[in-house]
Write a structure and sequence with these properties.
- This protein is of the alpha/beta class and about 325 residues long.
- It has two domains: about 200 residues, NAD(P)-binding Rossmann-like Domain (Rossmann fold), CATH 3.40.50; about 90 residues, UDP-galactose 4-epimerase, domain 1 (Alpha-Beta Complex).
- The protein is built from eleven helices and 13 strands.
- A seven-stranded parallel β-sheet has the order 3-2-1-4-5-6-11, sandwiched between helices. It has a two-stranded parallel ribbon with strand order 7-10.
- The protein starts with a strand and ends with a helix.
- Bound molecules: NADPH dihydro-nicotinamide-adenine-dinucleotide phosphate and guanosine-5'-diphosphate.
- Guanosine-5'-diphosphate (GDP) binds next to helix 4 and helix 7.
- The site of NADPH dihydro-nicotinamide-adenine-dinucleotide phosphate has 24 residues, from helix 1, helix 5 and strand 5.
Length: about 325
Amino acid sequence: MSKTALITGVTGQDGAYLSQFLLGKGYKVIGMARRSSHSENMLHRLKWLGVEKDVEIVDGNLGDLSALSRLVRTVKPDEVYNLGAQSFVGLSWDQPIQTAQDTGVGVLNVLEAVRLERPEARVYQASSSEMYGLIQQPMQTEATPFYPRSPYAVAKLFGHWMTVNYRESFGMHASSGILFNHESPLRGLEFVTRKVTDGAARIKLGLAKELRMGNMEAKRDWGHARDYVKAMWMMLQQEVADDYVIATGVTTTVREMVDLAFNHVDLDPEDFLVEDPRFMRPAEVDVLLGDPAKAKANLGWAPETTLSEMIVEMVEADLERYRSAARSSG
Ligand code: NDP
Ligand code: GDP
């Protein structure tokens, strides 16, 4: 009998890669998506990976516990992956309450729906390295204290501790993956890597003349989403639920990441970069660096893609998007 997985946030970057991965393992994949007035394009990431016809899409919203409960009751999932969230740190200062509801209370709604309707299901919660914020140790592990620096990170911290609490209070198999930044050609354009690879592609093709950026000195531990979704599944295959840091163990400045993208298309970024205070944040997370030793020891997980390989893949994908758009319009 194949297992059934329910994924919230299936229209996002990780939802697409995780769907592809679980389908490859023979799972029945049910993806929860929220209705919008322009749903035509809703499945574009699943389409890009060629799996949109294999995922069963069901309506739902993290804010509606009654709908979530009905869904869990009907679908009877073996595994629930809660990837849905308002996931952009920058926006979380403009929409702190919506962020608290979707990214924070939404987690509690999922946990409650599972507790009430299907307590034996295993739950994955998409926690974030942003919870470390103003870092308390140079390299962050599962034992490093948290110090969130944005409404997004505060909401994620609520979701993280709720997951731990439901595990300890009700014996649920609920795991929290503390994932460091992970990117891909399917990353949203508002995030810095994709903004940069898209910008480098547009400048190379003569479609733009500059790239406006915020803090170039921030450092992130960047990995590939395709590698990271495997770790989510591995966590739920363990006998005992637990929390895991998923990271590469390498940190890089935004400036160095920009160099990788522009060098790939033989351009000097200094000719095109414009510092723009609009992209500076009210409180910054200066540096993140994760230690994936526990995931390696317990799950046998290790990252497979280097930052440089990933940035090249992303720039190539963005170049191809513009070239194919030009072909179909001309
Ligand atoms: P995306 O922003 O690409 O996807 C977020 C998903 O959540 C979308 O499918 C979105 O739907 C959905 N969503 C948002 N609000 C609701 C709601 N109220 N009800 C139902 N669905 C909702 O994020 P990623 O795929 O990059 O990330 C997946 C998860 O992992 C997120 O929780 C994110 O915060 C977390 N995370 C991500 C990291 C990263 O580097 N990518 C790092 C650490 C954690 P819609 O398409 O309708 O907007
Ligand atoms: P985050 O780690 O979840 O906030 O991921 P982002 O990709 O949004 O940002 C990573 C880092 O890049 C942060 O320190 C940002 O301040 C920095 N950064 C610098 N310029 C930009 C920009 O133009 N857009 C974004 N999104 N981030 C930028």
